[in-house]
Specification:
Elements lengths: L1 E2 L7 H8 L20 E2 L4 E2 L8 E4 L2 E13 L11 E6 L8 E4 L3 E8 L8 E3 L20 E2 L2 E3 L5 E6 L6 H7 L3 E6 L1 H5 L10 E9 L22 E4 L2 E2 L1 E7 L1 E8 L6 E4 L5 E6 L2 E9 L2 E3 L4 E7 L5 E7 L18 E13 L9 H6 L7 E10 L2 E2 L11 E4 L3 E8 L5 E5 L5 E5 L14 E4 L4 E7 L5 E10 L2 H5 L3 E7 L21
Bound molecules: copper (II) ion.
């Protein structure tokens, strides 16, 4: 067992370095407790592969079911062998099955809440009606259920699902509620990418946790910035996992499912070929030595391994941009995440054949179509000086209009900006073209402090003045503390609503 990475910073040191003015208005003092260094635990357990969710087709609708429930799981060797850690999961003890559907399919999900408190399920990255979005207005009471239904109408992508209850998202995700939602389409199938689920097309949900002396998840909410950074790294819920590689090429679908930690992924000695970001294929594949993913972001990478080779996916010291005291923000942590062990003989993988449609999708957003420019400033758990209000509508967008959102964080702590319903394109960062890994369709973007991000997006298909979508920081502590706003999309000519008619959520109570 090795201890490496973070240098713990005691509170007084952090405070002295930060200065009081740098974080005024936050209501919290960062670094009041020392940051625990990440502990590595061998790589001796096979990577668990979340099962593919079963579904049935009824009247042309592919129907899935998911039950949010309490359970327990062993996280040895981070905990003593035989220790049962209380957890939450969908249809199981921890995390949830992988939902998979084809573009064009109509899908429904029967979501049941077997927990003893309200939760919700949000389809992160999905283009769908606001009433189906699973945000804080669609909470499900204990014993209750909810059945959203929509048509999959977007390119193949690695999306995910997780709870989004008002003020409690961090706790629910931390307890274990999260899973992947994969969309497939013909264009991606033609690209000859590795696509055998769990074999050479492998979901990797990266999260961090800490444990108390009794083996329970430590969840302190002690005012740390940017939220709790765990000292143990999980890949699909396993501590110290390896995956046996049997093919020349392997595709990893990386999800940063941590509540606060931003990771900078590398595979030392190898170039990673990034093929897709949050919303699907990049305009073209990009060779990268390192890839930063903030909470909520996804990326698909392809690695080519030699027979018999062993490599590790690593989270290196992350360049967080101009944050104060990177050690307190997780920027100095470096640790291995997953070991990849290539067999002595590898089955051939076809040469990827990049589809033209990857360009066409990107071209659907045009700067000359911008009908509205909006500014968003993130500071002190507020967006534009306001905290989340369930009744207030912050933005009224018009159906079929293209907008440019200018987003900026003005404080020296990390934020991860997520917009529901749309996949946006990053036009520029401080006036410069974004780096190639940020060139594709995105729904979540890490905001380096004091840089100006221009996001181009278009609101299509679903107008509804009575149901809102969210935009927020995906560092879940920040979200829960109010760094969130609401937008509605209304039809052309329709009057803008003043407030939301139903501010309570909890629409689908149990008995
Ligand atoms: Cu934030």
């Amino acid at each position: 067992m090795t201890v490496r990475g973070l240098r713990a910073l005691a509170g007084p040191v952090a405070l002295a370095l930060l200065g009081a003015a740098a974080l005024s208005g936050c209501g919290v003092i960062p670094g009041t407790g020392p940051v625990r260094p990440v502990v590595e635990h061998g790589f001796e357990r096979p990577l668990p592969i979340p099962p593919l969710a079963e579904s049935r087709v009824e009247d042309g609708v592919r129907v899935f079911s998911l039950t949010a429930q309490a359970g327990e799981q062993e996280f040895a060797p981070a905990t003593e062998p035989g220790t049962a850690t209380p957890t939450w999961g969908f249809d199981g003890d921890f995390l949830g099955p992988t939902l998979r559907a084809e573009r064009g399919e109509q899908v429904a999900v029967e979501v049941a809440n077997a927990l003893d408190e309200p939760t919700s399920v949000h389809w992160h990255g999905m283009h769908l009606p606001a009433a189906m979005d699973g945000g804080p207005h669609q909470e499900i009471e204990p014993g209750g259920d909810w059945r959203p239904e929509w048509t999959i109408d977007q390119p193949a992508a690695t999306l995910w699902y997780h709870p989004h209850p008002h003020g409690a998202t961090e706790a629910h995700v931390h307890n274990g509620l999260a899973g992947m939602f994969l969309i497939e389409d013909d264009a991606t199938a033609e690209a000859a990418l590795p696509r055998e689920y769990g074999v050479d097309d492998v979901p990797v949900i990266v999260q961090d946790r800490s444990f108390d002396e009794e083996g329970r998840f430590r969840f302190e909410q002690d005012g740390a910035e940017p939220g709790e950074l765990g000292d143990t790294i999980l890949a699909n819920g396993a501590v110290g996992a390896y995956h046996e590689v049997t093919t020349e090429r392997i595709r990893l679908r990386l999800l940063n499912g941590s509540t606060a930690r931003t990771s900078q992924f590398t595979v030392p000695g190898h170039e990673m070929t990034m093929i897709a970001g949050d919303g699907g294929l990049l305009p073209e594949p990009v060779g990268l030595d390192a890839l930063r993913l903030a909470p909520g972001e996804r990326a698909e990478i392809v690695l080519r391994l030699e027979p018999g080779e062993t490599v590790r996916l690593r989270s290196a010291e992350a360049d967080l941009g101009g944050v104060a005291v990177p050690g307190v923000m997780g920027g100095e942590a470096a640790f291995d995440v997953l070991e990849l062990r290539a067999d002595e003989e590898l089955a051939p993988s076809p040469e990827p054949d990049w589809p033209e449609s990857a360009h066409a999708e990107e071209d659907a957003l045009h700067e000359q179509d911008v009908a509205r420019i909006r500014d968003f400033t993130l500071s002190g758990r507020e967006i534009n000086g306001r905290r989340m209000d369930m009744e207030r509508i912050d933005v009224v967008a018009r159906l079929d209009e293209t907008e440019l959102w200018e987003v900026r964080s003005t404080e020296p702590i990390p934020h991860s900006f997520h917009v529901h319903d749309v996949q946006f394109r990053i036009v520029s960062v401080d006036g410069e073209a974004p780096p190639p890994e940020l060139a594709g369709r995105k729904d979540t973007v890490y905001l380096e402090p004091n840089r100006r991000y221009l996001l181009l997006m278009r609101f299509e298909d679903y107008a509804d003045a009575e149901h809102a979508y969210m935009f927020h920081c995906h560092m879940l502590l920040h979200e829960d503390e109010g760094m969130m706003g609401q937008f509605v999309v209304i039809a052309p000519g329709e009057d803008a609503p003043e407030r939301l008619p139903d501010a309570g959520g909890h629409q689908h109570g149990g008995e």
